[in-house]
Design goal:
The chain has 4 helices and 11 strands; from the N terminus they run E-E-E-E-E-E-H-H-E-E-E-E-H-H-E. The chain is an alpha+beta fold and about 200 residues long. The model has no long low-confidence stretch (mean pLDDT about 85).
Length: about 200
């Protein structure tokens, strides 16, 4: 798996990812062995990071490049509508297997993603629900370490980048499937979140 985090503070946000790839849960492949193994990619003014099956990124990039109009990723509602429409294409054109657990309420898109853009920091689940975070979130195998570090570092550091660096260091230190070097992308937000 991986660790991908997003942090927002004031008028800035940062999305970060580690660079370790694992195959079958038992083979570790560091960045130096694979070209283009980035877990975050840029789409217009948004950075999108995904965990799980490595092919998801190729599928999402392919789908986005096939669109006649730019996808609207400006709010949780817009992202949900985009993902909902994409789900049919994932099944019809990319042959995603939507079966997960028979007790799941909906078919799974099988993609977990963080989106960081000027409109906010969003999390998209495999069931296509979307959350917009006012402070931070983490996904991947290092999620628990990253969330603890994000909580501990949020008021300790001034900028999202500083918070992200300290928190990714914790995830890479303790998660078996995450490792340095990490990649960081900063985004200027159009409006500040009301933080408590």
């Amino acid at each position: 798996m991986s660790t991908i985090i997003v942090v927002r503070k004031g008028a800035q946000a940062c999305i970060a990812a580690d660079s370790m790839t694992t195959w079958g849960g038992h083979i570790r492949q560091r960045q130096e062995y694979e070209l283009n193994n980035g877990k975050i990619f840029k789409y217009h003014d948004a950075f999108i990071g995904m965990v799980g099956f490595t092919g998801h990124q190729m599928v999402l990039k392919s789908y986005l490049s096939s669109l006649k109009e730019k996808a609207d990723l400006s709010s949780a509602e817009a992202i949900f509508e985009f993902w909902r429409k994409m789900h049919k294409e994932l099944k019809d054109q990319y042959f995603v297997n939507p079966r997960d657990d028979k007790d799941d309420p909906y078919e799974s898109s099988r993609i977990l993603a963080l989106i960081c853009n000027p409109h906010g920091a969003f999390y998209v689940t495999d069931m296509r629900s979307v959350a917009n975070f006012s402070k931070f979130w983490a996904i991947g195998s290092g999620q628990e370490y990253a969330l603890g570090a994000l909580h501990a570092n949020y008021h300790r550091y001034r900028t999202p980048l500083e918070i992200a660096k300290a928190s990714m260091a914790a995830a890479c230190e303790f998660d078996l499937h995450s490792d340095h070097p990490c990649v960081y992308h900063n985004v200027k937000l159009t409006r500040q979140a009301k933080s408590k």
